[in-house]
Amino acid sequence: MSPHRRPPLIGVTPGFAGPSDARDFCRAADILYCDVSYLRCVEAAQGVPVLLPHLNGESLGHMVEQMDGLLLTGGEDVHPGRYGQDVRFQNGAISQARDGFEIELVRAFLPSGKPVLAVCRGIQVLNVVMGGTLIQDIPAETRQLHHAQRAATSVPTHSVRLLERSRLAHAVETTVLEVNSHHHQAVDRVAPDLMAVGWSEEGVVEAVESRGESYIVGVQWHPERLAATCSIQHRIFESFVQACRIKA
Length: 248
Prior knowledge:
By secondary structure, this protein is of the alpha/beta class. The chain has a single domain (9-247), classed as Class I glutamine amidotransferase (GATase) domain (Rossmann fold), CATH 3.40.50.880. Helix content is 28%, strand content 21%. It contains seven helices and 13 strands. The strands form three sheets. It has a nine-stranded mixed sheet with strand order 4-1-5-6-13-12-11-8-9, with helices on both faces. Helix 3 links the parallel strand 5 (69-72) and strand 6 (116-119). It starts with 8 loop residues before the first strand and ends with a helix.
């Protein structure tokens, strides 16, 4: 990269928590928060992470304009109403405030053609915004292995098979990855402009990417928790930031 060219700015979506007496600080305030592993991975890949505020209107447009890429992070379940379903299995927390912000953000960001990397909840938000649906609860709806591991997040617990010709397989230079797993929901009907490119042993969709030229990649696992000890997982962030650098 030229010494006079700035590194790409990567917008990172934070979690949202409303006022709570259970907190020992700012009990009456809304809180935005983020696992710093995401930020460290972006920085290690030579990008500059920017934690995005939950703002709308003109501010949302300015964020889209200034950012060179978007990283959708993990977190709560997406409300089923966002993809036209009733709540059938209430096994996880839901944040309507976060749903509202992230859905509007993604809708505003996608037309820019700038790169998107979506992790865990992020792949679900991405799929919903682009017209897909979700499995609300994997054990209840599919009777398959529960994907919420009890081992530490830094420990891989199952494998994912990647489509050989996919952008993701090219980035990690393999078609089989060992991954961690902290989710009970997953992509069901894949959005028309996305395609599934990764599956668990039981056939659960674990990765998607754009059918077009835009760099849009979603993974169901948490590479940010594995990247510090697994260079293959870090390549996901390197590939993403490189794509953002090209667009910057």
